[in-house]
Amino acid sequence: MSLEVALLGYAGLANLAQGKQRRAGSLRPAQPRARIIGWFLLLASLFAAAHRFGPYQAVPAWLALLSASGVTLVLVHSRWPAIATAPWMPMAAIALTLCLV
Predict the structure, then answer these.
(1) How many degrees, rounded to 5, is the angle at CA 83 between CA 43 and CA 25?
(2) Containing H/E element for 34?
(3) Predicted TM-score (pTM) of this structure
(4) Which of 29, 36, 61, 84 has the smallest number of CB atoms closer than 10 Å to its CB?
(5) pLDDT tens-digit map of 48-75
C-alpha cells in the first residue's frame, strides 16, 4: 500500500476543511490560504500515485486511497475537530520523505 498518497490526501482534505467557512454568521473567516494549500496537496497526492502505480493504475488507486483518507478525516472530525485537522503538516512531511525513498 502506498502510504504517501494517503497521507498527502489526508493533509489536503484537512486543509480544505480548515479553509471552509462553516456558516454565514460564523466568527471564523474563511481561509483562502488553507484552501490553496489543500488543493496543492491533493495534486501532489495525484502525482505521488502516478509515480507509485504508473499511468494506468494511478487514478483508480488515488481515488481509493483518497476515499479512505476522507472517511478517516470525517470520522475523526465529527468527534474531535481540532485533532483531525491539526497534524496536516507532519503528515505532509512524512509523505514527502516517503516519496523520496
Answers:
(1) 85
(2) helix 32-53
(3) 0.84
(4) 29
(5) 999 999 989 999 999 999 999 999 989 9
Domain count, the chain: 1
* Gap between the Cα atoms of 29 and 5, Å rounded: 30
What's the full length of the chain, in residues? 101
| Dihedral sign of CA atoms 77, 81, 87, 88 in order | positive
**H or E element: which one contains 62?**
helix 58-79
Scanning the structure block, which residue is given the C-alpha cell 499511468?
55
Beta carbons of 38 and 19 less than 8 angstroms apart: yes
Residues spanned by the domain of 68: 3-100
